[in-house]
Amino acid sequence: MWRPKPDTSERSGFYRFERNERTTLFSEKEFSDMLSQLSPYDFVAYGELEPFYQKITEWLCVERENVLLTSGSDAGIRAVYETFISEGDEVLVSLPNYAMFSVYADMFSAKKINHYYEKDLTLDVFKFIEKINPNTKLVIISNPSHTSTVISESEMVQIVKKARSNHSLVLIDEAYHHFYSETMIDHVDKFDNIIITRTFSKAFGLASLRIGLLISSNKIIDELYKVKLVHEITGVAAKIGEYFLDHMEIVNQYVDDVNEGKYILYCRLEKIGFEVLKSEANFLFFKSSNDINPLELKQYLEENRILIRGPFGKHPFDNHLRITVGDEKQMNYFCDTIENFLINN
């Protein structure tokens, strides 16, 4: 049985480029404004979530019956499995992906049908669609994906249509939506087999508050309500979530900072000699040349208080490293540190 490794690390003094969180802290004014939304009452009473629901529906331009708050998107994913998946049901999972998709498949004794991204980290949509059949109960895909590549809206519609013709649900994880312009939310009222997950952990930068969303048809949301927790999220999280929906400039500024950081990485890492993959998320993959040992590089970065992920060796990766993209200052420091590694080695 898969178990997460205990997290005993102290990360606050590091450059946190390994978990796709927001890498910069909120300004003192922003943080003060957030806290001013809270009162002592909010800590002792059960939260009133409907005001937050109202802001969410206005933000997404959907009806109230199309949305369910969850304690992070992982709780939403579990709810989908708990509601719709029985022992032996086939679940088609695109990989690499968020680990909990596979964890819950094992937990609910589903039959996993894995489909891997290609060596260039893109998805062959035609091959993926071919695996959808009358035995497929659930199709899982992230867009942007966990390789940071994307599938076009027209291709996503093809997947949804093939799934619908086989009476299959499609769970679309849009955790990194804000870094990519397209979304399938506009199709929720056109197809009765779409479930979309969203999170406030990425572009909103609120990973610790555990705010997730399920967006789907009212029929599917009604079914998901049967396994809903009494209190979907905390009242404190809802108050902070409301604040952010009223101050989307904070989110937009962070997305701009990430895009600027990506541009710096594209330019500087390629100049150093790395192969850098284009990203539509807040992270990107890069691959070192043969004369650079990726493990040694990662160790050197950690000695300089920089945390990244990798190297990844399992298909479709080939010793790729992954960095969560920060702002201009952070990314220039990261590249400077790599150049120092090359000088010293």
Strand and helix map with partners:
Layout (H helix, E strand, L loop, with lengths): L14 E2 L11 H8 L4 H5 L5 H11 L6 E4 L1 H13 L5 E6 L3 H9 L3 E6 L8 H6 L5 E7 L10 H13 L3 E5 L20 E6 L12 E5 L1 H7 L10 H12 L1 H25 L2 E2 L6 E5 L6 H10 L2 E2 L1 E4 L7 E5 L3 H17 L1
Parallel strand pairs: 1-11, 3-4, 3-5, 5-6, 6-7
Antiparallel strand pairs: 2-8, 7-8, 9-10, 10-13, 12-13
Helix pairs in contact: 3-9, 4-5, 10-12
Description:
- By secondary structure, this protein is α/β, with parallel strands linked by helices.
- It has two domains: 15-25 and 249-344, Aspartate Aminotransferase, domain 1; 28-246, 3-Layer(aba) Sandwich (Aspartate Aminotransferase, domain 2), CATH 3.40.640.
- Helix content is 39%, strand content 17%.
- Helix 3 (50-60) runs parallel beside helix 9 (235-246) and helix 10 (248-272) packs parallel to helix 12 (328-344).
- The longest helix is centred in the last third of the chain and has 25 residues, at 248-272.
- The radius of gyration is 21 Å and the shape is globular.
- The mean pLDDT is 94.
